[in-house]
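Appendix B, example 12.
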Amino acid sequence: MSVYIPECKLLKYNNLFKYTISKLELPPEIITIIWGKVKIILINPEESITDFSVKLSIEHCNIKRWYWYCYSILYNSFGSSHKYFKLFILESYFTELSSLLDSLIHNYFSLNQEYIIINDNILLEEINKNRIDKYTNKIKICNLFYFMDTIKKYEKKMNTSNKYNKYLSCDEKTYIINFVDRTNLYLNCLEDSLNKLNNIKSTQEYNKHNYIIELNKIILEFRKKFNKFTILNNIDVK
């Protein structure tokens, strides 16, 4: 299961502590508990807008792709008319977030700047790990919130019959619950970051403020939707 859960790019950990935990090869649910006991420090756009933009975009694209894998799992197990599947319609939120974040982040780079440079070779290697078309260390800014996913594809046997199981495997349910938890963390980080971005000078201040207002609206709507996701804990496991 852990191979399908992408590393979170939103949190700043002590490198030695992070390295030690990774070597223990613990299940993701145990790692989640450990991180919960550690003071959470989020990535900060005030420290480096370039580093922030790259890491936020990776997390955003991973969660967006993760959503589609969860969507496929629920569709194959319950069908499109079931309450669990109908609750899980989130595409419009991710589409709006991608568009608004793309527009907002462009405001923090010069108007004629097309690329950002990634000097972290480890990060670049991770970005390219599951990618057929490899990036160089130059990445187009306009690609950030659309083509930066590093998540491994969740292998799921497709349902070719007209009957649905109406249950999930333990791994499938854990995978979906992990998605919900990570998306909540992502929304928390995004909300916190918008407050900081509001204080950072941009090339187009008026547009920047409008994008931040719209993003806060989407986050609020997303949270209202996510508040209903506790029902997913009731899914049967076999």
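The CA atoms of residues 12 and 41 lie 5 Å apart. Residues 15-149+163-234 form one domain.
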